[in-house]
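Hey team,

Filing this mostly as a record. A colleague (T.K.) asked me to run one chain through the structure pipeline before their review meeting, and I want the input and output archived in the tracker in case anyone asks later how it was produced. No errors, nothing strange. Just documentation.

Input sequence:
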Amino acid sequence: MSELRRAARLVVNAPAVVESIGQVPMFLHPNLQAVFRRVDADATTMGKRFPAVVRDLSTNGAFVTGAPLPLLARVAMKFEVRGIGPIDCVGWVLWQRTGDCELPSGSGTATLPKGFGVLFESIPLETRSAIAQLVAKQ
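Output structure:
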């Protein structure tokens, strides 16, 4: 399969703890409230905490295997990557794969596991830099 993603990925197998955290309520002046719009995080799973596995990682986000969370769920994740150390980040679920999927490949089939893609909202700059350095070494 060809690689169509914008950011190069680091293949990892990092056990993680994922928690659906929602977002802080925003109180606006009525004048601003009349013209202000934002994307709200899905709150149906807020407070759900579960183990998962980070399978690939880039400076922008990660693919996490496990029970998919709803689109636009806001999550906090903790995991560790060799060569970087512990990673604490916050992100948004932008896509999900609700079940395992087999695709034809040059040597038979490839199985893509169920899970979800997270776009990082907050991750320390030094962690982003360390990810970029490891990806560049591949």
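Quick notes for T.K.: The longest helix spans residues 125-137. Residues 11-25+32-108+119-137 form a domain with the Thrombin, subunit H fold (CATH 2.40.10).
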